[in-house]
Amino acid sequence: MKEGFRRMFKLGVITDEITKDLRRAVEVARELNLDCVELRDIGGKNVKDLTDADIRMVRDLVEAAGMEVVCIASPFFKCHLASEREVREHLQFLPRLTEIAKALDTDLVRVFAFWTVGSLDEHWDAIVERLREAAGIAESEGAVLALENEHATYLGKGCEVRRAMEEVGSGSLRVTWDPGNAFCAGEVPYPDGYRAARDYMVHVHVKDAMRDPAAGRHRFVKIGTGEIDYEGQLRALLEDRYEGCVSLETHYKLPGDGEKSTRETLQGLREVLRRIQQ
């Protein structure tokens, strides 16, 4: 690894958190000695809509920087469960997502579990049925769907994604663990959420947050300055010998400056890593 301190996992970033200009985002990621990048929005184009020419451009940029694409951060199943039209549309573009992932030498496609409308218990069976259907497509395409716990969807907590993994029962459906989203969903991210999700975890997003009583909601902050126990979380990743990627999903935004926001967020992450390895 590129840091002076020991770690087993890779460090990466979702490129459009820096800028939607992929060339500049990759330059910054290289300057920051990151190992990999994750793709979501490139020049205003969603990753699911990349053409073959776009893919070649991405490969060239990332390979020239000495990095790798670790995950396709797709919007799959960020749709309404009750809309058969929306669900079918997403299932139709899933094979293209797996094709894009393979062309960029990764098997991970980040996915979700539908916008929350009503209670989880009320819709549980339908969620499991749709996730199982998607996992079957991924298995046939040789890809892994990395289900992110997202607080705006039905499955926002570690305990919820674990339950989904157990019921779907497919090796092609695994977890993208996001402590920040778990916090926003009302779960204690570490240790509670992490311990529930870790057996199925293949990818990690990191962002920090704190409650803003004045605004009546949460807000995102530099890693290490919020309410999430990142010392405990990162120590656990090291002790559990996690070998995947910890990917910055900055969300903390200085006005109009995603690059500076990401630099500060990474600095906070590295400060926490240094503290726990002293």
What would your notes on this structure say?
The protein has 278 residues and is of the alpha/beta class. The protein has one domain (10-276): Alpha-Beta Barrel (TIM Barrel), CATH 3.20.20. 43% of the residues lie in helices and 20% in strands. It is built from nine helices and twelve strands. It has helices spanning 22-31, 52-64, 84-103, 120-141, 158-168, 179-184, 189-197, 230-239, 258-276; strands at residues 10-14, 36-39, 41-42, 45-46, 68-76, 108-111, 144-148, 173-177, 201-206, 208-212, 217-221, 245-248. The strands form three sheets. It has an eight-stranded parallel beta barrel with strand order 1-2-5-6-7-8-9-12, surrounded by five helices. Helix 3 links the parallel strand 5 and strand 6 (108-111). Helix 3 (84-103) runs parallel beside helix 4 (120-141) and helix 8 (230-239) crosses helix 9 (258-276). The radius of gyration is 18 Å and the shape is globular.
Largest sheet: 8 strands, parallel, barrel
Radius of gyration: 18 Å
CATH architecture: Alpha-Beta Barrel
Helix fraction, binned, reads 40-55%
Compute the number of strand runs: 12
Assigned CATH superfamily = Divalent-metal-dependent TIM barrel enzymes
Residue share in β-strands: 15-25%
